[in-house]
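Re: the request from the purification team.
They wanted to know what the chain is likely to look like in 3D before they choose a buffer screen. I agreed to run a prediction and write the result into the notebook, where they can find it.
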Amino acid sequence: MRLREESLPVQVANMSSIWTVCYTRPSRYNWMLQYYLRAEGLALSWIGTGRLIFSLNYSDSDFEAVADRFVAAARAMERDGWLWCNPSATNRSIKRDILKEMIAHRFARLAPKPVSKLPS
């Protein structure tokens, strides 16, 4: 498919008229593709951030227009730097890092605030 030919880390899979978006490279920001798709005029299903539901009466030219917009959205997201990822990152390591950040933020809010010294 065109996404693979352009080395974009996104694939689509389908079952009849319901398509799902799959990412081939871990990234913290994959969820942002939905906003790039919307900017190209494609709205995802309200269920999750990676589903497209097609009408069964799409013509070849209709489908080609959707494909053009999808590729344009993925290109724009990559150009803007959101598809970059540390080559050693995995989905598991990203989840672990986010959890650590959330815990650190939570406990930072609970820690007593240092008392500032008044000038003498």
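For the purification team: The first strand starts at residue 10 and ends at 15.
Please add any questions underneath this entry.
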